[in-house]
Amino acid sequence: MDTTQSVVERSAIRKVAIRLVPFVALMFFINYLDRTAISFAGPNGMNTDLALSAAQFGFASGVFFIGYILLEVPSNLALHKFGARRWLARIMVSWGIVSLLFTWVGNAEHLYVLRFILGVAEAGFFPGAILFLSLWVPSRHRSKILALFYLAQPLTTVIGAPLAGLLIQQHGLFGLAGWRVMFFGVAVPAIIIGIIAWFYLADSPAKAKWLTQEEKAWLTGALETEKKETAASNKHVSVRTVFGNGRVWMLSAIYFGFIYGLYALGFFLPTIIAGFEGIYGTKFDVFQKGLITAIPYLPAAFALYFWSKDATKRGVKTWHIALPALTGALSIPLALFAGSPAATIAVITITAMSIFAALPNFWTVPTQFITGAAAAAGIALINTVGNLAGFSAGYITGWLKDLTGAYTVPMFVVGGFMLLSAILMVLLSRSGKVSEGIPAEALDPTGAGHHAEP
User: Fold this and answer.
1) What b/e string do you get for 223-239 counting C-beta neighbours within 10 Å, with b at 16 or more?
2) Is residue 57 within 8 Å of residue 398, measured between CB atoms?
3) Are 331 and 277 in contact (CB under 8 A)?
4) What is the distance between the alpha carbons of residues 158 and 160, in angstroms, rounded to a whole number?
């Protein structure tokens, strides 16, 4: 690469990282906050007001993913057809309106219906955002860009948990219970940012007014070359054959384990912290509980960034995904035997760091061997199957808690699924070099490791 092209490349990637990624990450921030707002509402008045058992709360948390799954693949194919700008903006405004209705939910049945419809409204957003960012940068820069995007998820809890606590403390505002005020407060930004996204986002580098002609030409050329190379080496990979591809399904199973751990923590950590009072005799107000809930996610954000930075330099290796999965699998059951609130949160912090270290690196894998509409379908399929864990984690955790009277068994189940993810990732790496025509780079793209990050 000559010096001029190197300068243009660095400048183009830097502009994408500064001008595009933060806004899409903000959309993801609001997305994750809206779907997990129920976890803050539950132990802070909603479960009591609506007379919810742990299993009912878990079902309400998880039924979101049924609606999400039903529309996931069609929504992501529509994004590929109509363009990310219009479709992501449409999705965001839709879920914002549904989120607003939670302010006036009246009983468990209404809660179930709204959570299901929220899943329908959000369907396609996350895989669409992943695909959208993948269409803006070549594969050797993708791990860094996705890591910056993924920082929004742990930071949602770092910022969102105390924010939710503050909103819940506004009990009586507009004549509403605190948890209802919280639902109102997190829904309105989704509608506003969704409208802004319609005008702010561009569908491709060629349409970005904030790139120079040289930067547009380099990004468009690099992406087109990569697309042709990938298509040439994987001619059999189409939308139809993606659904019969063993590696896509194995990636789905790996993702299932990560998401099971993510949402088991996301939905029930505030409830577990609220239970410290009965177990250890501690007393925290709503805002303090929010701050405690946020603790594991700040180190998780650092782990995500630095682990992905290493993956960008070396190229994503199997151990960048399998090792965090194994660490999470071993740590989450240990939290049950920590013996104090501080020790429990410390162990849970290790689990959160493990999950978030693996996720952005995981998402560099699918787009290494599928492109175009097949990539849209493949990413959506992986996310769809993986998000079955979103329903499973909520419902099974609550059901087992009601059945056994404690979180011991549910947390061992979480550890088991994450251990399965680690094992499958190693098996996939070993088999990926010799079968199904998918190149080894799909699982161990060492070519990416030959490039220093910009």
Assistant:
1) beebeeebeeebeebeb
2) yes
3) no
4) 6
Query: What span, in angstroms and rounded, lies between the C-alpha atoms of 397 and 371?
Result: 37
**Does the pLDDT at position 309 exceed 70?**
yes
Cβ neighbours, 10 Å, residue 75: 23
Q: How far, CA to CA in Å, does 126 sit from each of 72, 146, 171?
A: 9, 12, 32
CA distance 136 to 149: 13
Token pair listed for 123: 């369907």
Q: Rg of the chain over CA atoms, in angstroms?
A: 21
Q: In the predicted model, is pLDDT for residue 442 greater than 50? A: no
Phi, psi of 424 (to 5 degrees): -65, -35
Instruction: Count Cβ atoms within 10 A of the Cβ of residue 420 and give its class: 0-12 exposed, 13-18 middle, 19 or more buried.
Output: middle
Average pLDDT over residues 2-28: 86
Q: Could you tell me if 417 and 260 are in contact, meaning their C-beta atoms sit under 8 angstroms apart?
A: yes
Q: How confident is the model at residue 432 (pLDDT cuts 50, 70, 90)?
A: low
**Helix, strand, coil percentages, rounded to 5, for the chain:** 80, 0, 20
pLDDT-derived band at 46, boundaries 50, 70, 90: very high
The single-letter code of the amino acid at 445 is P
Q: How far, in Å, CA of 380 to CA of 77, rounded?
A: 9
Six token digits for residue 47: 């479960």
- The whole-angstrom distance between residue 192's C-alpha and the CA centroid of its chain comes to 22
Set out the domains of the chain in order of their start, with CATH numbers: 16-204+239-434 (1.20.1250.20)
CA dihedral of 179, 184, 185, 190, whole degrees rounded to 10: 130
Tally the residues of the chain: 454
pLDDT at residue number 450: 28
User: Which residue type sits at 60?
Assistant: A
